[in-house]
Amino acid sequence: MTSRRPASARAPSRAARATVAFVAIHAFHAGRAVAAPEAAPQTATQTEIEVARRTFASAYEDELAGRFASALTKLREVRAVRDTASVRYRIASCLEALGKLRDAREVFLSVGDVPLGPTEDHAVTTSAMDHARALEGKLARLFLRVDGAAKEQARLEVDGVHTQLTAGSTLLVLDPGDHTVRLSAPGRGPQAIQITLIEGKESSLALSLVDPPPPPVAHPRYGNTVGIVTTTTGIALVAGAVIALVVRETAISRIAELCPAGTCPRSAQPEVEGASARATAAGPVAAVLGAAGGISLGVGLYLVLRPVAAPTGAGAALGVGGTLP
Question: pTM of the prediction?
């Protein structure tokens, strides 16, 4: 197809486009007897061809009104019945208007693959080649490279479409604008990166596959220092609680000795009051120390006996980075 492109063609003028449109419509609405044999599938009936003619006219009206998506849908229905150079030209024009420059260029290039019917003019093919060459300069190019030991197993997708890699790289021709690149590999979760390509420019993007970190290893010694300190503190607090209880019980026993049958002699009154004060104070102290010691002891034993994963260093299973000069 490249050999058919004019060596010094300019973008078609408004008059040229109007001429092409007139030729396309006239060719499509020409009589049944003059239709190119290759234009319609053998299974198409005359009724289907008549419906296709009306659909083509409706699609062209949509195109003139700026309803390009509607026109494109109708033109594709027409092409399924009657595939002509004029139909392909109008499909490519709608694709171009919708910003799908790459697809438009491919369809413009394919116009020359369809033999012209008796009523079709070579202006259709010439204009299609001019459009295709003009779109060539508007398309963006993206060079993708995948690094890493697992690059041979990598799966690369651009805008949801699988892209084949050759020796870990590929060159893509894309529409200018935003695109999504997804990279994945066995044992590595997919990650995506958003890129914006500039019209007529070539960009490059380097992606790297990073080996996943090894699984965490159980290491019973990690956390033991805190556990041992906490356990020791708990034991000390519990021991303090026991001592406080002993002091309390000793004071109560002394009071009982000094005051048999509940009667305290006047001479023992000071000692009885002192023992009573000690018993009264030791009770709450024992309760507080016992509670704190029990909690500390429980936490300490948990930290000592529970295996804790050793730190392994963070790292992404799949690293995606790149440059867009």
Answer: 0.53
